[in-house]
Every structure is written in C-alpha cells, then in structure tokens.
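Recap from last week: sequence in, structure out.
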Amino acid sequence: MNESDPRDPLLIALLFNECINTGDLYGLCALMTPDHVFIDARGGASRGATVLWAAWRDFFRKYPDYRNHFSMLRSTGATVSIIGCSTCSCEDLDGPALWSARIEAGRVAEWRVWLDTRGNRELLGFR
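Predicted structure tokens:
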C-alpha cells in the first residue's frame, strides 16, 4: 500500500477497470494521476490526463461493448499485474490479455496492456 493513501493497489486497479467496463469517463479520469501514462499492447504510449480524457472518450464511443474480465491479480508493492481477457465486437480487441497498473498516492500512474505471451506472463511475475 502507498503510505499517502490507505487503499490497496489491487482495489485501485479494480476500480479503474470498473470505470473502463462501464464507460465512466469521469470516474476513470479521477483515478488517473495528472501525468498518467497509457501503454497499448504494441508499446505505443499516450501521456497526460488531458490527452487520455479525449482518447478514452473516443474509445468509449467507438467500442461501447468493450469489457475487461480479470481472472488473476497480484500486487508487488504499488504494481498490480493482471491476467484475463477482453470482450468486444471488434475482433482486434477481443481475446486474452495481460495488464499492469502502477499506483501512486491512490491513483493510477500507468496502465499498460500486454499481449498474453509466456514471456510477458513471466515479466509480470506469473509462472
């Protein structure tokens, strides 16, 4: 846990994902640090809450049926690693995935999507 926020990093990651799954743009952005970084499965990064506000708004409009389903979570300090899958009518966004979240002061500083590969599972601490 982060000493400046008593909430468990796992809880913060779950709340963040709930906002993604419900299309709650306001809730999602409230859980981001001002310098939040989103990294997609290809390694492309977007930075800053203002930039990500617009990106998530457009994403929610384009993919209203997108959902993340977590099957396993683990935390090491302020980093949360996640195994699961996404469901979406867009084939490119539908299927197994990994995520990681870095939590700072009760907010998400980095949200990253990973391809679900054996190597990435090992990097995230799943054996």
